[in-house]
Every structure is written in C-alpha cells, then in structure tokens.
C-alpha cells in the first residue's frame, strides 16, 4: 500500500483537487460499504491480498476473483485497489426515455500509476442482457469495448475515471499460473546465491527454451520449489499465456523475457502456427486471409517484429508478433481454412453421435467388404453385387464432402431418417411450445394426456384453426426440453438441483492443479448411536441415578476437511455439539498437527460458524483464501459431500448401533433399536474413524482418480513442490491464535487486585501486579473447552490467566456454562424482565444436585466425552477405568423396562459392562 507521502506525491503529479483528495482518503480509510453476497448461484468469498495487506471481497470466483488476481494483484501498474467502495450516483435515461437516478456500488476503486477511478466487472453474457434492458447505462462501441457513460460522467466531476471490465479480458491459463505461484509471493524468498539456484540459472542460460520437465530431469537435487521461486521472483521467465505450470512438458523456460520474444518470432516466421489445442493451424504468409473480430483481413507482410494486415476496405494495421500469436491462441483470430475444417469436423461428429452401436457394426462390415476395391482403385466394379458398388460410391462421396480419410461416415446406415415424418403447419410449433410452457410446465403437475386433449380443443378454436399433431408428437416436444427445466417448473428449484447440468469451468480445473489449492470443510451427523463411558459417569458422581438413558448420548457430528485435488481426508473432528466455530477451530488444529500447514483456499457452505469473526481472522492471519459455496448448491462441495456418503456407507453402517433402521421409524421395535445395541463411546469411535480414514479410505482406489487418494496426493506434491513457506508450527502460539475472543469485545480493562472480567468471571495472572499494567486495556482470548483459563496479551506476549474459581470450573466448557446459565436464569426469573447472574451463583449452581439432572447431566456427559477427542488430537491416550470400585455398577444400575427378562435377572458386573459397551 502507498504511504501518506507517496499518496501526496501521486496526487500532486495528477494535479487533483482538494475535494478529490478527500474523496480518495475516505475510500482508503473506510470499510467496504457492503458484504459480498452469494445469492444468485455465484461463489463469493475473501481473497488475501499481499499487495493490500488485507482481505478483499469478491462475489464471483470465476469473475471478480479472477479479475483481482489477473489484473489487479499482479499488475505493476496498479498501486492500490479497494473492494465495495462507497456508493456513487448514476443518472441516465431508461429504455422508455424516463430519467433514472440510482445509487450504485462499484466493485472496485483502483489507483494506478497514471489512472484512478471506479471499476465494474461484468460477465459478457450479463452485459449483453443489461445493455438490452438499460441501453443508456451500458454501451458497446464499434471495437467491442464496453462503457458506462453515467459512471464516467460522475467520475469526471472529480477528475477521475470509470471503466467496465469484462470476462473477455481474463485468460484462464495465465490465471492458473498466478494461482500456482501464489504462495511464493506471500513470503520472502531464500537467497538465490545457493549452488542449486546458480546451477538452474546456468542451465537455463545455456539452453534457452528447455521445458519445466526437462529442467527437473536434467539437474540433480532440484525440486519444483526451486523453479517456482525463480519464476515468481522473475529470475527466469515463462510465457504465462501459453501453457499452465501444471503441464510441465509444455512450459518453456528462458533467462529473460527478451529471449522468449525472440523464440516466439522464430515460431511465427515458420510456415504455420499451431493453436493451443494442437489441431488447427494458420499459414502466416503474404496473401493469407483470416478472420479477426468478424472482419476479413489479409496478411500483407509477416515481418520479423510485426505482422501487417489489410482489411477488405483497404484499412491497414499491424500487430506485434507476440500479440498476433496470443490473439490466435485465444481464438480472436482464425484462419478461413480453420473455420471450414471446424464445420466439417462438427458435421462428422454429429453423424457419429447419432449412430447406434448396431449402426457402427454394420458400417464396419461394409468397410471390410469394400476395402479390396478401394485399395485397387477399380472403376467401375462390374463383377460384384449392387450393394457393394453402392457402399463403395457412398464411401467415395463422403471423402469428397468431408475430406480424405472421412469416407467411413458414408457407410453408416441412416435408419433414423427413414419413415414418415409428421409435417406441421407454419406457426403450429411455436404455438405448441408456448402452450406446453403455460399448461404443462407448471406447479399444478398436470398429466400430459389431459394437457394434450385441451391443446387439441384450443387448436380448433383458433381462427384459422390449426390441424393438431398426434399425441406422440406432442409428447416428443415435451421430452425435447431438459429434465432440469421440467423438474424445476413442476417440482421447484430445490428438487431440480439434483438434475442440474454441471457448471462448465471454461479452462479452469474444478478442484485446482495441486493438493492444498482447494480444500473443502463441512459437517455431517453420523448414523450411529454412542454411549457414555463409565469414567464419565464416575466423574459426574451419578452412582445413585444410573439408567440406560444416562448411557445413551445420541449421535455425534463429524467435521471433515477434504482436499479437492487428491480427495484425501486431511482432518476429521467429532463432537456431540452441533457445528460451531469450535468445530472449525479443532479441525484446523488437527490439520496443522498432522501436516504442519493450512490450505491455500478453503471452500465452505454459508453456515454461520464459517462467517464467525474468529474463523475469518485465523484464515487472514495465515493467508488462506476463503470461498463460500452458493446456498442450496451441494454439488459445489462434491468432494466433501461424497466423503459423507462413503463414510456412512462403507464404515459407519458396518458398526453396532448404526441408525439405518430408523429410516422406517414406526416399524422399529425395542429389540432392534440402535440405543439397545450401542456400544461405542465417542473416544473409541474417533480412534477407529481415524484409522479408517488414514489406512483404508486413503489407500482405496477412488473412481474419479483412477488411483487411491494418498498416491494422488503424493504425486501432486512431487509435481508442485512441498512449499515449505506454508509451514506452520503446532505450538502454543498457534493454539492461542485459534482461540476466540469474548463475544462482546476482544479487550478488557485490568482491574487492580481482581484482573480481567470475562462472562462475569474474574481471571488473574502475576503480570497484572505491575502498576503499569493496572487499569490498562489488554486483548483477551478464552478457551471454549476449559473456561477456567483465559489468555491476555501483555507486553507483547500471551499470558495464561486462571479463574478465581479454578477448582470448580476446571474442565468445564463454554457450552456447559451457557446451558447452566440459562437454567439458572429460568429458575431465578420470576417476574423480573432481566436476571443478572454472579460468578458465585453460577459456581454454586454447578455444585448443586440440579446440575446432575436431565439436560444438564447429559450436557456434562457429552462434554466429558468431547474431552477425550481433544486429548486424542493432542496425542494423549484414552483414559482407562482402573478399578470397578470407582462406581458400583451392580448396586446402582436401575432396572430398565426396556431390558428383557433375562437381562433383568442377571446382575453380573461383566454382563452389565458388556451390555453398556465398556470393553
């Protein structure tokens, strides 16, 4: 970002007025005027900008995010950019000539070296539609550039500018390369005078044009990280527009940009230029005719530096060779022969697509029969039957039409073209389609036969009347519409999403080019009933009130972190609590504990836990981008959603106490109820789930990969590098950073002799004795899993603070205190509108008998079981019950009516232990 001195110098250079300077200052110092929304099927989120030193919002990851990365973040001309600046006023005439005055929030405010103003980003399709609706707001000039006259008029009042950026400016290959190298821009590089870097530079200088793959093979001890560092820091050069770094054998490496341009000139001076797909070619020679932006041009001079072109009206222009090549590569320039070949290929492909398997078999038989006569080139054939002569003629005719080698399509039988085809009157088809839309594609869900019967009557009532088609033709036009359109119109968008066509990524890999590039986090309940351990019951001191209900704790929630590229499960966390910021925090901890890193981009749904300030702060601190899936679009989270189904189907449903049978709840009897057969505690279940994810799922072949997730992950790391700059130590500092701040405020005043007060509880540490610290404000964090501890930021370090009720709050969770506080408020409420609870009253309620009953007891048991998962994540073993005398099971287990008579008569400790799942 610009310093105040640099900003002043820039404003002086631009000779901006004081009003404009104040406007720019307001934009720079204000927060975004609104939050990015994902209500229209778009993927919104936050991008960690290294240039701006903060997160930047975007409302479309294939639009605005791509524009941020490609045109703003890595553009040397751009000095600063701000998302969602304050509203500006646009005044223009509507389509019917009325004056419109509206407030508009541009997408960005951009400060460049020689330009400043507002930017609005739109996809081309949306711009075309809006230009029809608002022709005076969005205008396209003769050269295809888009403009917003009312926006430019507003900006000119301040000596600034306004421009419309479109998706046509984006380059998918270049964007993939920026994304590939993103981690290397976010940290300081290693010293480039080490032997390995010097060896690479020497090799590239000696052999310009070597590919990325060739360099990796030709130098010992080289790692992709070394090359990525040199490319990111511009010590060596690649053309970002030609090939993606994920395709090592296609990327050529040069010591400088000048040598790369010389290499491109040599390629352009050759007789043909291959396109990026490797199929179409363009002759770069005098007299070659080509199509450029819908106009025909002729090459008049293919020079060494520029290509000179003449239009049909005599206008002459020239393009640099590199620019000419780029236009051809992106499809803006096409040769006339390329257009013809493309049309022919499409026709051939249509004929092959229409052919059935039986048609292919017949064509193969015909080809075998005519093969001798084609090779001998015998004309005419007089000693063979008429069928062979006809097939041979069809083959030769197809070669004339579609080119040499394409005669095979002439042998395909065209049975589908045979028979009587009903001919409809002019206008009848349009009338029938409209009638189907109005009467069949409706939420009423009418029968097709009824709609057709009314359609016939409607045709006869017209003047002049239509001759209605047959019922089969009517149904044919219904079936011609996509299944998604039909279901959406008749059953609603939520049901239709299951049959919605997949979104085309248009050159972007759906799940990234590397492991850790796109990682999904989501929650799901697992279909298994879990029980409480005897240790938890002993801790709660419930020996006088143990029943079967005390043991059953219900289902648990699982939080998965899944890598989109390799489909590997990176981390999993289990808890009895519903999804919250605590689940997010723990799955991030588990990920760092296992792999010592966090993802480059995290993709989540729109749950409130993913919108929490703690989660966003953690991602921003470790420079993780964040994307939100569109609401109600589970397919955007396909990798993690598929893991949900696989985990339940292949693992959970094989365990005792699984809840499959509850799908038919009314037919479930006590003898088969999952509660009766539940044996797993949360800690034991977490252990076997981790084993299944790491040793079974991880080594099992994934159908979409053709290999197992672990192999895919390891190959991806070998191709892209280990990226040690993303390494995160799993230490106390990281743990504290994952802790939340109090809900109301993240700072507290140090009160002399008492410490800091959080949730009506005082916390103290010895640093608070310092008179310089007393009565000052310090940042604080709390441990949601152990509320007897808090942390205060004192003198540049996080200090642990303990509660004055440490012995009573030890091991208690934030969730427990909320449930207990709500229960205590309800008991004290009476007629008072607001009830205040002191820390002493809360602790007394913790020790009361009411806290060991009903919901409060179940919450306590669940919290104790959750603690076992936290201990396992920290590497601690499960606690073991050393002696049965800790809790006298035989004397305290009450006779439950749900037990059968044999179980009631047998009170042996071993059987009771086995029944309740302790093993």
Automatic annotation (TrEMBL):
Gene3D superfamilies: Ribonuclease H-like superfamily/Ribonuclease H (3.30.420.10). Residues 511-717 form the Integrase catalytic domain. It holds the Pfam family rve. It comes from the Bacteria. GO terms for molecular function: nucleic acid binding. Residues 900-913 have a biased composition (Polar residues). InterPro entries: Integrase_cat-core, RNaseH-like_sf, RNaseH_sf. GO terms for biological process: DNA integration. Residues 897-919 are annotated as: Disordered. This is Integrase. It comes from Aphanothece hegewaldii CCALA 016.
């Amino acid at each position: 970002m610009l310093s105040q001195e640099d900003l002043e110098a820039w404003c002086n250079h631009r000779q901006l007025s004081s009003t404009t300077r104040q406007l720019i200052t307001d934009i720079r110092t204000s927060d975004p005027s609104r939050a990015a929304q994902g209500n229209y099927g778009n993927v919104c989120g936050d991008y960690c900008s290294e240039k701006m030193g903060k997160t930047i919002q975007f409302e479309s990851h294939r639009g605005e995010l791509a524009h941020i990365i490609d045109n703003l973040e890595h553009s040397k001309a751009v000095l600063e950019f701000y998302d969602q600046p304050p509203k500006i006023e646009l005044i223009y005439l509507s389509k019917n000539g009325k004056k419109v005055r509206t407030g508009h929030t541009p997408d960005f405010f951009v400060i460049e070296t020689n330009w400043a103003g507002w930017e609005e980003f739109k996809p081309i399709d949306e711009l075309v539609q809006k230009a029809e609706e608002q022709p005076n707001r969005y205008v396209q000039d003769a050269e295809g550039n888009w403009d917003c006259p009312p926006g430019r008029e507003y900006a000119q009042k301040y000596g600034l500018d306004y421009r419309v950026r479109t998706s046509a400016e984006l380059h998918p290959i270049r964007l993939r390369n920026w994304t590939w190298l993103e981690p290397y821009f976010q940290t300081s590089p290693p010293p480039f005078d080490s032997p390995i870097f010097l060896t690479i530079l020497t090799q590239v200088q000696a052999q310009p044009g070597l590919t990325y793959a060739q360099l990796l093979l030709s130098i010992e001890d080289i790692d992709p990280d070394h090359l990525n560092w040199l490319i990111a820091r511009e010590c060596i050069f690649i053309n970002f527009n030609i090939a993606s770094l994920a395709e090592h054998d296609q990327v050529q490496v040069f010591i400088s940009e000048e040598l790369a341009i010389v290499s491109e000139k040599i390629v352009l001076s050759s007789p043909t230029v291959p396109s990026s797909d490797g199929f179409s070619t363009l002759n770069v020679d005098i007299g070659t005719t080509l199509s450029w932006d819908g106009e025909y041009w002729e090459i008049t001079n293919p020079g060494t530096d520029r290509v000179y072109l003449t239009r049909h009206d005599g206008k002459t222009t020239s393009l640099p060779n590199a620019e000419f090549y780029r236009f051809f590569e992106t499809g803006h320039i096409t040769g006339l022969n390329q257009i013809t070949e493309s049309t022919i290929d499409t026709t051939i492909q249509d004929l092959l697509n229409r052919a059935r398997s039986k048609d292919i078999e017949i064509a193969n038989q015909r080809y075998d029969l005519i093969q001798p006569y084609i090779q001998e080139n015998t004309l005419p054939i007089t000693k063979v039957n008429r069928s062979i002569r006809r097939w041979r003629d069809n083959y030769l005719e197809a070669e004339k039409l579609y080119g040499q080698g394409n005669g095979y399509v002439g042998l395909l039988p065209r049975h589908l073209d045979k028979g009587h085809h009903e001919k409809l009157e002019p206008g009848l088809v349009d009338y029938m389609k409209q009638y189907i839309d109005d009467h069949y594609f409706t939420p009423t869900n009418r029968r097709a036969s009824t709609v057709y019967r009314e359609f016939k009557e409607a045709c006869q009532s017209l003047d002049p009347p239509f001759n209605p088609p047959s019922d089969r033709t009517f149904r044919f036009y219904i079936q011609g519409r996509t299944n998604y359109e039909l279901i959406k119109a008749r059953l609603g968008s939520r049901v239709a999403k299951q049959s919605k066509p997949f979104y085309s990524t248009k050159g972007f890999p759906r799940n990234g080019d590397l492991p850790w590039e796109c990682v999904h986090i989501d929650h799901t309940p697992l279909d298994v009933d879990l029980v409480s351990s005897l240790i938890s019951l002993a801790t709660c001191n419930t020996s006088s009130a143990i029943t079967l209900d005390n043991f059953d704790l219900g289902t648990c929630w699982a939080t998965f972190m899944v890598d989109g590229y390799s489909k590997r499960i990176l981390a999993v966390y289990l808890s009895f609590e519903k999804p919250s910021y605590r689940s997010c925090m723990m799955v991030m901890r588990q990920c760092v504990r296992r792999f010592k890193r966090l993802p480059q981009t995290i993709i989540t749904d729109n749950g409130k836990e993913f919108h929490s300030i703690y989660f966003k702060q953690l991602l921003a601190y470790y420079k993780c981008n964040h994307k939100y899936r569109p609401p109600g679009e589970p397919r955007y989270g396909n990798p993690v959603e598929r893991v949900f189904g696989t985990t339940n189907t292949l693992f959970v449903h094989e365990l005792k106490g699984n809840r499959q049978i509850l799908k038919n709840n009314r037919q479930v009897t006590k003898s088969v109820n999952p509660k009766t057969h539940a044996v797993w505690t949360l800690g034991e279940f977490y252990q076997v789930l981790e084993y299944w994810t790491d040793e079974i799922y991880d080594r099992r072949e994934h159908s979409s990969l053709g290999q197992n997730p672990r192999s895919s992950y390891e190959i991806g790391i070998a191709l892209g590098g280990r990226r040690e700059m993303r390494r995160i130590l799993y230490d106390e500092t990281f743990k504290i950073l994952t802790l939340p701040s109090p809900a109301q405020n993240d700072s507290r005043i140090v009160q002399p002799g008492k410490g800091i007060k959080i949730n009506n509880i005082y916390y103290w540490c010895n640093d608070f004795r310092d008179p310089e610290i007393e009565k000052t404000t310090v940042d604080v964090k709390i441990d949601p899993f152990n509320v007897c501890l808090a942390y205060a930021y004192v003198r540049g370090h996080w200090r642990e603070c303990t509660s004055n009720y440490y012995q009573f709050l030890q091991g208690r969770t934030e969730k427990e205190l909320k449930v207990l506080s709500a229960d205590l408020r309800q008991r004290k409420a009476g007629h008072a509108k607001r009830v205040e609870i002191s820390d002493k009253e809360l602790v007394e309620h913790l020790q009361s008998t009411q806290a060991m009953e009903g919901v409060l007891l179940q919450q306590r048991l669940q919290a104790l079981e959750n603690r076992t998962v936290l201990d396992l994540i920290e590497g601690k073993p499960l606690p073991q019950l050393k002696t049965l005398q800790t809790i006298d099971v035989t004397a305290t287990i009450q006779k439950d009516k749900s037990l059968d008579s044999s179980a009631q008569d047998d009170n042996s400790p071993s059987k009771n232990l086995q029944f309740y799942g302790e093993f």
